[in-house]
Task: structure prediction
Amino acid sequence: MTFGCFTKTTPVFSLNFNMRSIFTLLARVIPLLVLTVTMAAAELVASPLTPKTNAPAASGRPRIYFAQPVYEFGVVKPGQTIKHEFQLSNRGDAVLEIKEVRPSCGCTTAGNWTRTIPPNGSGAIAIQLDTGHFKGAISKTVTVTSNDPTQPQTILQLRGEIWTPIQMTPAFATFPPLHATSDVVHTKIKLVNQGEAPLEITDVKSSSKSFKAELNATTPGKEFELTVTTVPPLNNGSNHGMITLKTSSSEMPLVMINAFATVLPAVQVVPDRVLLPAGKLASDTQRFVTVTANDSVDLAVSDVKLNSDEVRASVEPGISGKQIRIRLMIPKGFEAGTATNLVLRLKTNHPQFAEFSIPFVGIRTR
Result:
């Protein structure tokens, strides 16, 4: 190329050198970029929706499971010891801890049991039942406490029948609540001879004047029917007696049957104490006292009084002639059991139950 008297020549060597440098650099950088993108993509595929955090993983939970929580031991002789192992497993994903095994009474005891069970693991709880003081059908429970958050307590049950030469159904003579001391009611008990030899029963007696007993042989030597009857005048409240029968059985020469009857008072006030948490009340509180007539008198309540201006009482209608409810409004800050000794007093129209006094009591709560 010519510019006046000068001629300019393009530096071909320099251009070629620069192009080769660029291509060399790209050849080194591009594989690194591809590798970086590939690794990032792989990480996203592995956890496409899970953000990275420093929070610990959620802990698992144990889950207690008993395939057979009820053990039927059938019919056994008196005094025989029942031994059984309840099998359990952990269906959760954390260690199961058996904290306590508590039988319902002293006749049932817990032996060794598996204290900890891993996930998908299994264990056993040994239980023993002494039948020496029982007869007829029995049922006993055992409470198992664990760290299962959804089922912290599980109830196990042992049930069966203690064989006796003479079976009694029911085992006790019980009566529904009576409303007067003059009530005469009956209940029947069936006695069955479970031995091979014919059975004779004689000398039927009652230890209490409140009951009498009569025996009838429905199938001589095999089945009998005992009728127990209340005998007025009964006592107000609880009445108890023991019916005894002599038998020809060498294994069970004496049969003893408890008899129970309760005569409700003509007028009943529930509760007999108004319970409040100890200390000053944190908020306004209300309680109810119910007055019920259990006989034929049409109930009426009057002169409802409290020895404090802080608490208000109002009489509400209930079942006409039979039940009346009293609402008690106790204000915030009131303290039961203080020097005021608060008492609710009321009168009724019943000649034998004319006046009632119901105290307020402060109780400590856990």
User: Anything to note?
Assistant: Residues 166-263 form a domain with the Immunoglobulin-like fold (CATH 2.60.40.10). The two ends are 108 Å apart (CA to CA). The mean pLDDT is 84. DSSP finds one helix and 27 strands in the chain.
